[in-house]
Write a structure and sequence with these properties.
The protein has nine helices and 14 strands. It is an alpha/beta fold. The structure holds succinic acid.
């Protein structure tokens, strides 16, 4: 949603926006939880030429100190330790940045002085980063991602309240042990379930089928359910610098086998297919994927539908074809899990199906 090259500087933004003092350790109440706020860019740090422009702006240009400065109420919730990890439009997220981010969070959370972490991120790939962290952070302290649909320069920018709510959730005792969370538009979602479902609405994130874990409003946090599948401390995954090559293909009317054959020729370790309906695949593409699987490429069947799950041996004969079912993970999260599993040494469809059934 962020257009590149918008010509704007912060000076052109609403000046009252950035006039408040940054909350500092000195004037915060010492017994408040200490929360690290790690900024990575995104629309929450975006700026446009005028306040009515919510689509043509540059993402990731406002620094973490300025993001914090417009939310003086943060100092009543937590002692903030800000860090600028990156300044990217999250459409350009790279796995090397995932490694840097996860390693930094693990280091911070190993420190007794840090009680939780908030990550500000772009909305476009937030669900992928959140799930990656959910599987690789080795702490039960809260990690909460947040973002915004409107740039920091916009009328009714949603970032400041989302940031305050994210810090409120990260500072709350009930958030411990819930895995990585996403606080957005007053809802608290699990990183495993949450997906972006709107290109423009401020209520852009949903957990299809099962709903949010809880809510946050005016300093109050309430969880209505908890996460069942293993995460954080309970996974076998550790963050590293090795990222096995896994790509995603889509099945649609008239699709050919060209993309799959090209990926196999390029040496991919795995292919996730965003199938139609219950992960069904056009016959041409399915034959190409079966050929890929017979050559040792891991093929995972997910769905392009956006909710529901893919039943093993439902719309394709997984046992006979050597495929793996993604269950309720969408194709993008299925790719994250497959990369981590392959990096951890998992091999073959039987072992990988167990991984997908577990996480
Ligand atoms: C991004 O993902 O970095 C840009 C779009 C957004 O944050 O809404």
């Amino acid at each position: 949603m962020a257009a590149r090259g918008a010509s704007l500087t912060i000076a052109a933004m609403n000046t009252s926006t950035f006039s408040s003092a940054t909350p500092s350790d000195e004037d915060a109440t010492p017994q408040l939880p200490r929360i690290a706020v790690l900024a990575t860019g995104g629309t929450i740090a975006g700026a446009a030429a005028d306040a009515t422009n919510t689509s043509g702006y540059q993402a990731g240009v406002v620094g973490v100190e300025q993001l914090l400065a417009v939310v003086p109420a943060l100092s009543t919730v937590a002692r903030i330790a800000p860090e600028q990890i990156a300044s990217v439009d999250s459409k350009d997220m790279e796995m090397s940045l995932w490694t840097t981010l996860a390693q930094r969070i693990n280091t911070l959370l190993a420190d007794d002085d840090i009680d939780g972490v908030v990550v500000t991120h772009g909305t476009d790939t937030l669900e992928e980063t959140a799930y990656l962290l959910h599987l690789t952070i080795k702490s039960d302290k809260p990690v909460v991602l947040t973002a915004a649909m409107r740039p920091a320069s916009a009328l009714s920018a949603d970032g400041p309240l989302n940031l305050l709510n994210a810090v409120t959730v990260a500072a709350h005792a009930d958030s411990r042990g819930q895995g990585v969370l996403v606080a957005f538009n007053n809802k608290i979602h699990s990183a495993r379930d949450v997906v972006k479902t709107s290109t423009y609405a401020v209520d852009a994130f949903q957990s299809p089928d099962i709903g949010a874990l809880g809510w946050v409003q005016d300093g109050r946090v309430e969880f209505q359910r908890s996460v069942v599948r293993p995460h954080t401390l309970a996974t076998e995954f550790v963050i590293g610098a090795k990222w096995p090559h896994v790509e995603i293909v889509v099945s649609y009317a008239g699709v050919s086998r060209i993309a799959v054959d090209a990926l196999v020729a390029a040496g991919v370790r795995g292919i996730v297919v965003a199938g139609t309906g219950n992960g069904s695949i056009h016959a041409s593409m399915q034959q190409a994927l079966a050929d890929a699987a017979s050559q040792g490429v891991v093929v995972v069947r997910a769905s392009r539908v956006g909710s529901g799950h893919v039943m093993r041996n439902g719309a394709a004969a997984d046992d006979a074809l050597g495929f793996v079912s993604a269950g309720s993970l969408n194709p993008y999260k299925a790719r994250v899990l497959l990369m981590l599993a392959l990096a951890a040494g998992a091999t073959g469809p039987v072992m990988l199906q167990k991984t997908f059934d577990t996480y």
